[in-house]
Amino acid sequence: MAQQITRFLDPRSIAVIGGGADSLAVIAALRAMGYVWDIWPVVPGVAKVAGIRARARLSDLPRPPDAAFVGGTGEDAAQALADLARLGAGGAVCPAAQDPAVAQAAGGMPVFAGAVALPAARVLLSPQPTGLLPVPRGVAVLGQLDQDWRGLPVAAVLPRGQGAGTGWLPLGLQLLARDRVSALGLRLDRLGDAQDLLQLGAEAQRLGKPLLVCLPEASLGQRALVTRAGAALVEDEATLVEALRLVHLIGPLPANALAGLGCSGAARDLLAAEAQARDLSFAALSPAQLARMAEDLRGRTPPANPLEAGALLHAEDGLLARLMAEMMAGTAVLTLAALDGAAPGDWARLAAAGAAARDRLGMPVALLSVDAAQMDAARARALAKAGLIPLAGLGPGLGALRAAIDLGRAPRRVTPLLRPVLPPEGAGVEEISGSVARAALGLAQAGPSDPPLLRLMLVAEQATGYVLRLGRAGPVALLPQSVREIAQMAERARRDPAEAKAVAEAVRAVQDYVTAEAGLVAGIEADLCLGRHGAAALADLRIRRWQGDAEAWRRM
């Protein structure tokens, strides 16, 4: 079965079944893509279709096709799928397979009801235009996206399919293994088995290929699971496209430290506000950087990061490039210039300055159009060809940077989850508090003058495991966490080193207790304080625990 989907993803023969307008459009699309292998129209009573010899029946083909497009409907489509399956075809695209009765006729053969685009293989199995062009290497996407690709190099786009090998785990593994795929994006409506995502994430990390997940309205546990898999979560399809573009061009970012320029006062203010909302940081400028920038600016605008650069687009040659290079010379890992409502000449001047600055210091430069419509496919391709990173839309562009930073700090090793038991219906839950609960964790009672730190909350989710959250809007993770990961999580929750140390102590105590209880813990709520000598202390603690035999439940 794995061989079938392998053939389908890199077909050397494609059967086009049916003589309607859709089939003609598919043949035209294959030709436009530059597909050079066998195209076999199957239409009874016709000698040629689009200048290609036609066969009357699938059984007349010289061998089973690697892929097929079925243009019929109802019983005709079902019969064609059944015949393809019986012959041993690699797979099929069949719009009529949206009807489950039609799809079932394919048996275990891979079948897709939506368009399949494989530009790296010069294949497009869709009667509708996609705007995609053949590429030697690009990103792969699993899931149907209704987005303008805006010049993004795409190697493969596959919708959800049916039959063997069409789940997102086997398809994702197939695509990651291909040299022509640089990164993988998943557009999911639901997450499915947590272990599948962990397995896909582990393989992506082994191959050094970024994994991005678009899952609208993801729960806290699902967000933590994506992080655990070494992937990054994005909020919508537009952000997925921009994030894939960014990691295709430069990969993950090693730090949350940007240099920013707004090419108008409004663009600068928008950039600063929206970056703050996404927890993106602009690198502090050193005294030497500030002095050099002030000398170049000559009072036009104060040196700052982000910089208001509207007056600089039409300044003397080389000034904007020098300022961009000076902003790169510190701790920033990427320079971002935002343009709003710019004329073509402004784009050209900004691109020339960005390319010159990049050539001088070798650091990546991204040009962001506040209005996504200004970053059309032609402009995006031209900027990428010049060695710059095009980003379309303020929200999607900044979301892409957030994802690249998250990928840069993702765990380098995907580890198994600590899972709660699945209690039988009617299983009782006991609540433990007071001195008994504190003794279970090995933490002291907080004194009346001990300063409060945060609330720790642990929830047992059957789908994702134990979800730990520090503070109302603080970091979230799944257990178990390594000592280093616990320390990093505590530092994100509390910046003060002594407070972070106490939080980490409490998290380790909670994790040790949950591990020892072998899945019986249903939840924990704890109000942490900074106790005597900097130790963690508890102002309040409640433990919820299932009553029963965990091992017996696991055997049920």
What's this entry about, in short?
The chain is of the alpha/beta class.
Corresponding CATH architecture of the largest domain: 3-Layer(aba) Sandwich
| Unreliable stretches covering 5 or more consecutive residues | none
Helical amount among residues, as a percent range? 25-40%
Intertermini distance = 33 Å
Mean pLDDT: 93
The rough form would be described as flat
Pfam families: CoA_binding_2 (PF13380)
Organism: Salipiger marinus
Domain CoA-binding: 8-99
Keywords: Tricarboxylic acid cycle
Structure in words:
It holds the Pfam family CoA_binding_2. One of its GO terms (biological process) is tricarboxylic acid cycle. InterPro entries: CoA-bd, NAD(P)-bd_dom_sf, Succinyl-CoA_synth-like. This is Acyl-CoA synthetase (NDP forming). The protein is an alpha/beta fold and 556 residues long. It has 4 domains: 1-122, 3-Layer(aba) Sandwich (Rossmann fold), CATH 3.40.50.720; 135-251, 3-Layer(aba) Sandwich (Rossmann fold), CATH 3.40.50.261; 258-388, Rossmann fold; 429-555, 2-Layer Sandwich (D-amino Acid Aminotransferase, Chain A, domain 1). It contains 18 helices and 27 strands. Strands 21, 22, 23, 24, 25, 26 and 27 form a 7-stranded mixed beta sheet that branches. A 6-stranded mixed beta sheet has the order 2-1-5-6-7-12, with helices on both faces. The chain has a 5-stranded parallel beta sheet with strand order 11-10-13-14-15, sandwiched between helices. Helix 10 packs antiparallel against helix 11, helix 11 crosses helix 12 and helix 16 (483-493) packs across helix 17 (497-516). The longest helix is centred in the C-terminal third of the chain and has 20 residues, at 497-516. The chain is flat and about 90 Å long.
